[in-house]
UniProtKB/TrEMBL annotation:
One of its GO terms (cellular component) is cytoplasm. The chain holds residues 65 to 300 of 325 of the full protein. It comes from Sanghuangporus baumii. It comes from the Eukaryota. This is Ribose-5-phosphate isomerase. Its EC number is 5.3.1.6.
Length: 236
């Protein structure tokens, strides 16, 4: 499909621009775009990849690394990462991202912060101006299960009347449970609040029981978007 082609285009271009011989410790994000990142890295050859270690941002990311026969590493052993490449749900004009559509944003943010360079890859649907314009499900917030009901109230008071607990769809009754054993609250905020994502991030993060917030502000060095016409848009 056009969207899959644009994901591959973004991922291949980002790998070609940012993953070179000297990069040995590489963070792999989560979602449906990063498989194309791994695909392109594998094409750099076994010899080069045998000298590298790849750190996952969750179960799906780990499976991707293992299935590609790449060397799996642990962030405990490699706290400093050369490059991490990850997807996003939406990217604004300032490279701020909504992340967490896949409920992996805690480990994603740890590996994003630990990386010398953090690069976002996405299809054209994610290329936005103000967050919340295209990704309407709300800011994903990973929360401690014990605190979720109280947090829902506090997130409502903060300005998200429609905030709700993310329920599993099919295959499991009850809420989505993250790789860390936590719940996710999706909290839509109005455009006014989404125009200052860093301010919003700070307010949400201060609420008791919040584990991590799916707003990645001032973290990306560049974002690559594949377009339907076969071109690539790079924001930096
Ligand atoms: O959850 C995340 O942050 C993932 O990176 C995900 O949102 C990216 O989505 P994708 O499937 O469009 O790459």
């Amino acid at each position: 499909s056009v969207i899959e082609k644009s994901k591959r285009l973004a991922a291949w271009t980002a790998v070609d621009h940012h993953i070179h011989e000297e990069h040995k410790v590489i963070g792999i994000g989560s979602g449906s775009t990063v498989p194309y990142v791994v695909e392109r890295i594998v094409q750099q050859g076994e010899k080069l990849n045998h000298e590298r270690v790849f750190l996952p941002t969750g179960f799906q990311s780990k499976e991707l690394i293992v299935k590609a026969n790449l060397r799996l590493g642990d962030v405990d052993q490699y706290p400093s990462i050369d490059v991490t490449i990850d997807g996003a749900d939406e990217v604004d004009h300032d490279l701020n991202c909504i992340k967490g559509g896949g409920a992996c944003h805690l480990r994603e943010k740890v590996l994003a912060e630990a990386a010398e360079t953090w690069i976002v890859v996405a299809d054209y649907r994610k290329n936005s101006d103000v967050l919340g314009t295209t990704y309407k499900q709300g800011v994903p917030i990973e929360v401690a299960p014990f605190a979720y009901a109280k947090l829902l109230q506090n997130v409502h008071l903060l300005g998200s009347e429609n905030a709700c607990l993310r329920m599993a769809k099919g295959g499991k009754a009850g809420p989505v449970v993250t790789d860390n054993g936590n719940f996710v609250i999706d909290a839509p905020f109005d455009e006014e609040m989404m125009r200052d994502p860093h301010e919003l991030l700070t307010k949400i993060k201060m609420l008791t029981g919040v584990v991590e917030v799916g707003l990645f502000c001032h973290m990306a060095q560049a974002a690559y978007f594949g377009n339907a016409d076969g071109s690539v848009t790079i924001k930096w």
